[in-house]
Records
---
Amino acid sequence: MELYSLILAAGEGKRMKSKIAKPLQPAAGKALVEWVLDAAEGAGIKRNVVIIGHKAEDMKDYLKDRVQYAYQYEQLGTGHAVMQGMTAISEEEGTVVVLSGDSPLMTAETLRTCIKVHEEEGCAATVITTVVDDPFGYGRIVRKEGEICRIVEQKDTNEEEKQICEINSGMYCFDLKKLHSALKRLTNENAQGEYYITDVIEILLGDGEKVGTYQTALEETLGVNDKVQLAAVDAILNRRLVKQAMLEGVTVVDPATTRIGAGVKIGCDTVIQPNTILEGKTVIGEDCEIGPNTRLTNCVIGNNTEVAFSVGIESKIGDRTHVGPFAYLRPNTVVGDEIKVGDFVELKNATIGNGTKIAHLTYVGDAQVGERVNFGCGTVVVNYDGVHKHKTIIEDDCFIGCNSNLVSPVTIKKGAYTAAGSTITDMVPEGALAIARSRQVNKESWTGKKRKQKED
Ligand code: UD1
Ligand code: CA
């Protein structure tokens, strides 16, 4: 049997009060709609149709050719959206799973089981439902003698129906042929003047078809209509990701303050300290200690490395290296093995060779640094002349004296030293000591004379 999903994502999402389309709002490192699509694909659905309308081009830019698209130019309701989606399906028979681009918590496992039950029971429709404490805003599942007889939207409920706590998740499995037939008879005679997909249930039951329900937890069905709910689903997704990491052997000291994005990979026995944010495609090896208070975006870290109280963006750090506290690694930084990058050190577009020490108060930008180099406190690579950025090369075993300025482009050859306080503008030859500062002059008894002048 052909299996399809229709992912409804054409609505404006007014309640978000955002410039970003609701299905593209990020939660735990992915757009809401991507979580939905991942679940559909994970459940074995290969043909996924996303119904787009509001900010349609943004949606296409994000999902590219992973899915088929169907346009809904006017948002006339969820039933109307499904009608548009059906135009992308040419097959006559199969199962159609309707999902909502704003409900990212459904798991592939639950979806797979639900599809199985739906097909085995020979249902025309199976509605995924949840029991909640506060059903306000949701469509309610109305039952007669235990069987579902219809779904009533919040705005169409009577007093009795308002009390029903079993709600419609907005996710369903349908028999393709029967859905087609029911959609033809859908009307918009309701409080909102919209075509409701939920009305299909009553139509199918009227045809004498079998309609089932599949109850699951709220943790899988919560939808996002505003930023309060966005934070709620984000927290649930993050909790799942942190738990997954722990089950894979990562030590998370404080799961509540740890964020591990969906694309992040961490090796076993690495310890994540509190208030740490790992995001993008960050990969961390084994036996590392990351955090506290650290944010790494698209970074690759080796094994046995420590990063504390620091920020890293698109950078690579090798093995047995120590970063922080308070280091800032900007894009294109490659730090090798057994290196120390200490406090208030900023690195940008720089390659740092193994065994080098940059212990404190130093900026290294657009530079290639060799192995076993020692940076004195307060070194500044002067890489920018106000118009262009230039490159600095520091070869192996150099010693950069404290408070040196290295005015780029400049090369410090192998094993050379720069004297503390020097402003280096020219190449320093191999093994040389460069002193580029004025000599010290001592004016004898100067303070005594000064004091006397004041007294007079
Ligand atoms: C819908 C259900 C409700 C259910 C709830 C669960 C209907 C009529 N109601 O209500 O029973 O409890 O979801 O969250 O189906 N969309 C379109 N085109 C449209 C309208 C909506 O693509 O014309 C999309 C939206 O972008 C969104 C999804 O469909 O992703 C759901 O729409 P929304 O307006 O949020 O429906 P609810 O009022 O939440
Ligand atoms: Ca909704």
Note: The longest strand covers residues 340-352.
---
Amino acid sequence: MLPTHRPRRNRKSEVIRDMVQETRLTTHDFIYPLFITEGQNQQTPISSMPGIFRFTADRVIDEVGACVELGINAFAPFPNISEVLKDRLARESTNLEGLYLKAVADIKRQFPEVVIMTDVAMDPYSSDGHDGVVDPDSGEILNDASLEILGQMALAQARAGADIIGPSDMMDGRVAWIRRVLDENAFSHVSIMSYTAKYASAFYGPFRDALASAPKRGDKKSYQMNPANKREALRELALDEAEGADMVMIKPALSYLDIIHSVKEHTHLPVTAYNVSGEYAMVKAAAQNGWLDGERTMMEVLTSIKRAGADAILTYFAKEAAAVLRRG
Ligand code: PBG
């Protein structure tokens, strides 16, 4: 018997394929991470992330300008702090005259319309390289002592002009804590995009190289989630919603498409996904070897993350993908 149903009819020409396409990427979907470093008029390549640079604060302005040209209007800056400024309590993280917060204020001054999401976690400023405070005797990560510091960090970022605060630390109760600190200080208009389900992932390797922020001792498994768990992500989601998060995030993205899908089904909040450094590095490395078509793979990866349920994607591919989308 010949087939009655022929799904191929809906694939028979480019126009028809376009007509029935279910997921479409646009530059509005992207949030572009930026690495900021000390110095002047320099951009240094990150070897494990071809095409991604650490920019000095003056040069990051040019980079934001170039991205805005391409239609990218949301950025997630991260600081590369010199070792001498790091301490146990991440004191440099609240310095409004320091590298990071000055750069944030500068970007907002030059481009008031762009959205800046700042990162709340102690690791780039911590001599221990952990997201929370480390007990010097036991090596344990102290949840409640960290909240105080994270709240002050978020407040300083709001003062610098951050539009969205992005707690990436995975301490318990930090969304409620940060919300209260912001509200008590007349920053009720500043949003919180919570890293809701952030997994203890091997895919963060290149990011930690870029910021020299790897833990000096131990790992992050006592606060970041076990990659084997899915229902636990829904528990974190319920807590973040109750604590007042405006948006939720899943991180990493590609090995966690099922988590993105499931979280999307369980919330009315916007869902974002972080297509992390290692996911970027894998595609780039294979493309450099001639093993994959880098551009097609990039677009397929980003489309799959959106198809899984992400409303927005933090991705190192943003600039390159925006150029592809512009070309049409
Ligand atoms: C820090 C932070 C990390 C990333 C974003 N914020 C690293 C980590 O948790 O160790 C990783 C992002 C990436 O790999 O692209 N709290």
Note: DSSP finds eleven helices and twelve strands in the chain.
